[in-house]
Amino acid sequence: MIATPDRTPLPRDFFDRPVLEVAPDLLGRLLVRTTPDGPITLRLTEVEAYDGPNDPGSHAYRGRTPRNDVMFGPPGHVYVYFTYGMWHCMNLVCGPDGQACAVLLRAGEIVEGAELARTRRLSARNDKELAKGPARLATALGVDRALDGTDACATGETPLRVLTGTAVPSDQVRNGPRTGVSGDGGNGDIHPWRYWIADDPTVSPYRAHVPRRRRS
């Protein structure tokens, strides 16, 4: 018998821990996105940890900027960035206030609101692809920079909340190099900080960093 997922909101203390503890512990949790068009609930299946000034792959490695300001805390807030001039990606800030740690939400299973997600992800061949990758996840959930800085632990009405869900047993968690990260930040021997649920069909494929060529 499959246990019913716990729909209790995760407290701020959950996020106020080292990023390498929070990241794998987010697997199996439920992300609820509330929009004027209706709610969507996603079960997290893949994430990546980014450890601020200790991590050359992090947006905060070289210090604080207007773009990464939310990463510096407090924990439990949403950090959204725009990349390649096309896509948004969503992170959850964690660790002590001021340390600039965050977890990138890479993939998940839409468990409620798939009809709405399909209208945003018309190119998805099936529901397993609706949120298979960080940009697809953000698109399916209707996430953009307007959500940057949202408090996911706030009481009352909030556009995004993380629920307890069902934690994934450690023997079902896998880890390895982060996807598309260059240099030492993408070295799986140094930073094996991508975490995913073993054999889950919604997990995105690993791709090493490929330098982008400038158009002539």
Automatic annotation (TrEMBL):
Signal peptide positions on this chain: none
Transmembrane segments: none
Keyword DNA repair: yes
One Gene Ontology term of the molecular function aspect: alkylbase DNA N-glycosylase activity
EC annotation from Swiss-Prot or TrEMBL: 3.2.2.-
GO biological process, one term: base-excision repair
Alphabetical keyword list: DNA damage, DNA repair, Glycosidase, Hydrolase
Enzyme class, spelled out: hydrolase
InterPro entries with a match to the protein in the record: Formyl_transferase-like_C_sf, MPG, MPG_sf
Top-level taxon: Bacteria
PANTHER family from the UniProt entry: DNA-3-METHYLADENINE GLYCOSYLASE
Record family assignment: Belongs to the DNA glycosylase MPG family.
Protein name: Putative 3-methyladenine DNA glycosylase
Organism from which the protein derives: Streptomyces muensis
